[in-house]
Amino acid sequence: MAELSSQTPEKVVERSRLRVAIDSDFAWQFRKSPVAIVSAVVVTIMVLAALFAPLIAPYDPFDPGSLNLMNGFSRPMTPNAFTQEVFWLGTDDQGRDVFSTILYGMRISLFVGAAAVLFAMVLGITLGLLAGYAGGWTETIIMRVADVQLTFPAILVAMLIFGIAKGITPVEYRDQMAIWVLIIAIGLSDWVQFARVVRGATLVEKNKEYVQAARLIGRGSGAIMLRHILPNVLSPVLVIATISLALAIIAEATLSFLGVGAPPTQPSLGTLIRIGQGFLFSGEWWILLFPALTLLTLALSVNLLGDWLRDALNPRLR
């Protein structure tokens, strides 16, 4: 009793909220799903490794002053024939440590994927709310544009947008703007699914009593969409965003592998795979294998986490 009486009301409220979160149905489903736990742990480890790459990586692979061509093509966990240095995952043709390049490459892949999904989500939610709430010609134009875009593969749309944006960018700024152009290209190719889901949910929500009550008290259309309808359509959006993150990472890797993505000065996992592919048949398999396994593990873990989140937020599957 003395311990409880000594706590401030704010601490008591904070502890009660934490207890509610721990005892919630969502947290219980997470604890009962080994796939969700393993996926969350793997994603967390890989994200932290990418964020703290300068502290974890034994070498700076993009510092020309630290490279030694004599270390080129060192096999994993095998002393180099000339320098006797040992590299965990070997080195590439320029003597760069593959483990370090993977850590730095994940930073680019995760940043591009997360930023592209955020851009697509904001654009899709905005257009979906407008289409569902306004109706009429606004809805017709937005949804017809979405239908036309769905007829083309997303990767081709991203390549087209990337090519146009890169073409209008001055030559001296192309490498500096390549990452941002890549984010915009992937985001513009992925907004449709957000818009379609939000538009369908908005059509249902706008006819409910709380929206009609908001209109009666004089709320504007913008306030109704943002403060009343938007919070009630976010659950499916979060699920789509999680799954889209894995697809965006793969899309970035695909574009970089094709040579139209991240520049050589800022290589992502896709760029590393493209570089390793050139040495696969000459016996230097590790240059391709380890970046490819990293990309596979990251995309699979995010996808499995998104599948669990979809099931956890769907009351029909409980």
From TrEMBL:
<dbReference type="Pfam" id="PF00528">
    <property type="entry name" value="BPD_transp_1"/>
</dbReference>
<feature type="transmembrane region" description="Helical">
    <location>
        <begin position="177"/>
        <end position="198"/>
    </location>
</feature>
<feature type="transmembrane region" description="Helical">
    <location>
        <begin position="35"/>
        <end position="57"/>
    </location>
</feature>
<feature type="transmembrane region" description="Helical">
    <location>
        <begin position="145"/>
        <end position="165"/>
    </location>
</feature>
<keyword id="KW-1003">Cell membrane</keyword>
<feature type="transmembrane region" description="Helical">
    <location>
        <begin position="285"/>
        <end position="309"/>
    </location>
</feature>
<dbReference type="GO" id="GO:0055085">
    <property type="term" value="P:transmembrane transport"/>
</dbReference>
<feature type="transmembrane region" description="Helical">
    <location>
        <begin position="108"/>
        <end position="133"/>
    </location>
</feature>
<dbReference type="InterPro" id="IPR035906">
    <property type="entry name" value="MetI-like_sf"/>
</dbReference>
<comment type="similarity">
    <text>Belongs to the binding-protein-dependent transport system permease family.</text>
</comment>
<dbReference type="Pfam" id="PF12911">
    <property type="entry name" value="OppC_N"/>
</dbReference>
<protein>
    <submittedName>
        <fullName>ABC transporter permease</fullName>
    </submittedName>
</protein>
<keyword id="KW-1133">Transmembrane helix</keyword>
<feature type="domain" description="ABC transmembrane type-1">
    <location>
        <begin position="106"/>
        <end position="306"/>
    </location>
</feature>
<keyword id="KW-0813">Transport</keyword>
<dbReference type="InterPro" id="IPR000515">
    <property type="entry name" value="MetI-like"/>
</dbReference>
<keyword id="KW-0472">Membrane</keyword>
<dbReference type="GO" id="GO:0005886">
    <property type="term" value="C:plasma membrane"/>
</dbReference>
<keyword id="KW-0812">Transmembrane</keyword>
<dbReference type="InterPro" id="IPR025966">
    <property type="entry name" value="OppC_N"/>
</dbReference>
<feature type="transmembrane region" description="Helical">
    <location>
        <begin position="229"/>
        <end position="251"/>
    </location>
</feature>
<dbReference type="InterPro" id="IPR050366">
    <property type="entry name" value="BP-dependent_transpt_permease"/>
</dbReference>
<keyword id="KW-0614">Plasmid</keyword>
